[in-house]
Amino acid sequence: MAQPTLPILKKLISTNPQHLRSCFRSITYMPRPGYSGAKPVNPITGAGIRTPVTLIPGDGIGPLVTNAVEQVMEAMQAPVSFEKFDVHGNMNKIPDEVMDSIKRNKVCLKGGLITPVGGGVNSLNVMLRKDLDLFVSLVNCFNFPGLPTRHENVNIVVIRENTEGEYAGLEHEVVPGVVESLKVITKFCSERIAKYAFEYAHLNNRKTVTAVHKANIMKLADGLFLESCREIAKSYPKIKYNEIIVDNCCMQLVSKPEQFDVMVTPNLYGNLVANTAAGIAGGTGVMPGGNVGVEYAIFEQGASAGNVGKPKMVEKKKANPVALLLSSAMMLRHLELPDFADRLETAVKHVIYEGKYRTKDLGGTSTTQEVTDAVISALKMT
Amino acid sequence: MAPFKLFLLSFLFVVSLSGTYKAIADNPPTLRPPPQRIPPRRTPPGSMPTPPSPPQHVTPSPPYSVTPTPSPPQDVMPSPDHPVTPSPPEDVTPSPPHLVIPSPPQDVAPSPPHYVTTSPPHGEVTPLPPQYVTPPPKDVMPAPPNHTTPSPPQDITPSLPSPSKDITRSPPHHSTPSPPKDATSSPPQSITPSPPQFSIFHPNPFPQSSNNNFFLFNLITCFDHLRSFFSGQLTVVMALQIAKRLLRSRATNEIFTATRSPSVGLFTTFDRNYSSTSSNLITATLFPGDGIGPEIAESVKQVFNAAEVPIEWEEHFVGTEVDPRTQSFLTWESLESVRRNKVGLKGPMATPIGKGHRSLNLTLRKELNLYANVRPCYSLPGYKTRYDDVNLVTIRENTEGEYSGLEHQVVRGVVESLKIITRQASLRVAEYAFYYAKTHGRDRVSAVHKANIMQKTDGLFLKCCREVAEKYPEIKYEEVVIDNCCMMLVKNPTLFDVLVMPNLYGDIISDLCAGLIGGLGLTPSLNIGEGGIALAEAVHGSAPDIAGKNLANPTALLLSAVSMLHHLDLNEQADKIQDAILKTIAEGKYRTGDLGGTSTTTEFTKAIIDHL
C-alpha cells in the first residue's frame, strides 16, 4: 500500500499537465547521465542541483568561445550553472563581486584577458593567479588523432610555477636608462610545484618528470629550484627524474619531443616551453589547461599565446573553441563529474578526427558556431 | 700674384679636403652607427689609384668630438710617442654585463650622449665604399654600430695597400690606430695633401650627391680647418661642426634610399674606384680550439685557400695555464690579436674545470665587449628536418639582461636574481640588428619581448628598438610577445625574418631556431663587439670523443667563417663557399656522421673544394 503511494503523491504534486495526470510512465530506458532526467534533485524543493561555476568571458575571442562552452554544456545537460561576469583586460583590478563569486564557487572558467603591452597596467591574468594563489599552471599538449602535425607521439604535460619567478613584477628604474627586474625564487614555491608535478605524474600514470632550468647561468636562483625538485624526487622513487637546460630543451622539443613526459618549470621558462610544446602538437587553439591552486581552480585555454586572438578572428567568428571545450572537460573532472568529461572529450576528438569542421588554425575554414554544432551533434550520437 | 693666388687656392682646396677628413675624425658622432654600408654586393671591377699617405694626422680631437666628458678615459693625454686617442674604443662604454651600477655616470647619463637626438647619427655614418676590395687594415672594419667614439676614426682610415698599412700599424698602441692618435703626434703633417683620398678611401660620411653640397661643404670645412689650425677657437669650430652635421643629415637622407642592389647611382663613382682585386690580405685571428677544433679549423683553411679568400690566419691557442692578465686560459696576446685584427674565428673550446679562472667564453665576451650574437638560421637544402623553409636571423643581446649573474640569497630559501636592461645596450643591439637587416637585404625586424608582464624592463628594450626603427623607415618593424613567437616559430618559421631580443629570450629562441634547422652542428654564429670586432664561432661542443678521428663535421665552422666573410664584405667569396657547402650537403654523397653519412672530415672538405 505504501509503495504506490509515492508515485501517486508525486503525480499529485507534480507539474504534469492536467490532462496527463492520470497516467505515469514506466522506465524502460537505461538512465544516462544528463539524459535520463535523473538529475540530482533537491529533495525538498525539487529543483535540480547544479554546481555553480564562475564564468568570465574575457576579451577578444573570449566571449565567442565561452558561448560555445555554454551551448555545449547545455546540450550535455551537465549539472553546471554559470555565473557570468564581465571583466576586461583594461580594468585596474578584478571587481570584488567576481572575486567573491570565485571564492564561493571555487571553480572558474575564463576566456583570455588582454594585457596592454608596455602600459602601466598589470596583467589581470597574473593578478588573478597571485591573489588566488593558483600556483600551478598546467598545459596538456598532445597529438590529436587525425590532425596532422610535424611531430608525432607528443604527449607532454607542462607544469609551470605560476606565482613567482620572473613574473614577480618587481621592477624599478635604477637611474634613467637602467632598469632592473627581480626574479624571485623561493624554496616554498619550488617545493610545492615540484610536489604537485610528481603527484600529478603519480596519479596520472606518467613515467618521467623533467625539470627545466638554466642553472649553469643563474646558479642560485635556478639552483634552488633544482634542489627542491631533487628532494621531492626522492620521495617518488618509481618516477624517473631528469633535468634539462632550457635552451637545449627547446631544441629537443623541436626535434625529438617524444622524450618528454611531464615537465616542471619555473615561471618564464614554463611559458615558453608550454607554448612551444603546444605549437608542435597542433597549436594553442586546441590545448587544454588550467591554473590550479589549493583551494581554487581557474580553467582557460592552456597555453597563453593567442588567448585573445586577433580582431579579424573575432569579427569573422572563427575562433577555435576546442581549447576551451577541453579545458571545461578538465573542469568537469575537477568537479568530479568524470562521465560528462569523458563524453565531452570524446565528442571533441571525434570532431577533430573527422576533419570536416575545423577552424583556420587547424587548416580548415569553419566558424566557431559550426564547430560547436558539430560537437553537440557528436555528443548526441554517443 | 696670380701664381700665388693659384697656389693659395689649391692649397686651400687641398686643405679643405683634409679638413673634411679631419672633420670626420673630429666628430665621431658619439654614436657612430654602422658605417652605413649599403654596399652593392657586386662591384664592377675598376682600378684604384694608389692612395697617398693617410691623413692620420688630424689635429688632436678637441674634447667635444670625443665621447662627452663623463667618460674617464678621456684623461689619457695623447703622449707624444704613444699616439693614443683619448678614448680607447673598448672602455668607453662601461661594459654593461655586470652592471656595475656605479658606472652610470658615464653611460647612463639621462639619455646617454650617444643617442642625443640632435646628432643624426646616421647622417654621419658613412655609406662605406662597397667593397673594401683592397681590404682595409683591420682598422677599417666596415663596422657595425660602433658606439664608442673612436670607432668612426677607425672606419675612416682609408683602405690602403700595404705601405700605408704599415704606417697605420706602426703606432705602438696596437689597438686600432685611429687617425686621431697619429694626428695628435704630428699636427704639421695635417697639411699633407690628399685629394683623391678623401673621396675614394674614406668611408665617406658625406655622400656627395650633389656638387653644391660638396662645394659648400668644402668651403665650410676649409674655413673650419683654417680656423682650427690657426686659431683653435672652439666655439666657432663647434658651430661649424653643427653646420656640417646639418649638411650631412640633409645629404644623409639619400643614403638610405639606396639598397643593396648593385651600384645605385649614388655610389657608382665610388664603386668603380674601389673594386680592384686586393693585393693585400686581411689578417684574421683563428682559435682552433679543443677537441675537434683543430681538424675543422684545418678544413676551413683549406676551403679558404681553394676559394682564394684574401685572409691570412693568425693562430692562437688556448694556453695551458692561467694568464694573470686575463684571468683565464686565453692569453693577453690572443685577445690583443683579435682586437688588432678585428676579425676572428673561434672553434669549440672546452673550459677546463677548476677555480681561479674565468670561463673562456666569458673572457672573450668581456674583454672584447661582444654585445651582439648573430645567428643566421636557414634550412640546408638536402638535409631534411621537419622544417624546410626556415630563413631567419636571430640577433641576441649578449651582455646584460637575465644573464648578468647578479644573484643573492635574501633569507634562507629566498633567492633573488637581477635582470638588468640598459638603454645603452638595447640601443646598441637594436642598431646592429637594423644595420644587419639593411646590409643583408632583409626587410623585417621583429623585436621579441614580454613587455606585457615585465613592463619596465622589456618596455625599455622595446622603446629603444622603436627609436632605432624610426631611423630605418624602409625596414618593417614589429613586436612579438615571446610566447606567441615560440608558437609561431614552431608552426610556421617563415613568418620571421630578423629577430632581435634581449639576452635570455635570445638564448632560448636562437637555440630553438638552431633546432629547427638541424642542430648546433650546422649553425653558424657571429659575435659582434665594440670597435667593429667580429668573432665568428662554432657553437657546438668540442666533442672529445671523436677528436682526432677525422669524423667531425666542419659545417658549423665553415658557415661561421662565411658569415665572417659577409661581415668583411667579401660577399662574392662568401657566396661561393656557401653555395659549395650547400651543394655538397644537398648532394648527399659526402656527409659526415652526424648528418647520417659516412664521410670523413677530409673527404667532406675535398668535396666542398671540388664544388668551388
Automatic annotation (TrEMBL), chain A:
Name assigned to this protein: Isopropylmalate dehydrogenase-like domain-containing protein
GO biological process: isocitrate metabolic process; tricarboxylic acid cycle
Principal cellular location given in the protein's record: mitochondrion
Domain Isopropylmalate dehydrogenase-like: 52-375
Organism of origin: Tagetes erecta
Described function: Performs an essential role in the oxidative function of the citric acid cycle.
Family affiliation: Belongs to the isocitrate and isopropylmalate dehydrogenases family.
Gene Ontology MF: a single term: metal ion binding
Gene Ontology CC entries for this record: mitochondrion
Lineage: Eukaryota, Viridiplantae, Streptophyta, Embryophyta, Tracheophyta
Keywords: Magnesium, Manganese, Metal-binding, Mitochondrion, NAD, Oxidoreductase, Transit peptide, Tricarboxylic acid cycle
SUPFAM superfamilies (UniProt xref): Isocitrate/Isopropylmalate dehydrogenase-like (SSF53659)
Pfam families in UniProt: Iso_dh
Domain of life: Eukaryota
Location in or out of the cell: Mitochondrion
From TrEMBL, chain B:
Domain Isopropylmalate dehydrogenase-like intervals: 283-608
Signal sequence coordinates: 1-25
Biased composition (Pro residues): 30-113, 127-155
Region described as Disordered: 23-203
One Pfam family hit: Iso_dh
Cofactor dependence: Mg(2+); Mn(2+)
SUPFAM superfamilies: Isocitrate/Isopropylmalate dehydrogenase-like
Biased composition (Low complexity): 184-203
Keyword entries, A-Z: Magnesium, Metal-binding, NAD, Oxidoreductase, Signal, Transit peptide
Gene3D superfamilies documented for this protein: Isopropylmalate Dehydrogenase
Annotated protein name in UniProt: Isopropylmalate dehydrogenase-like domain-containing protein
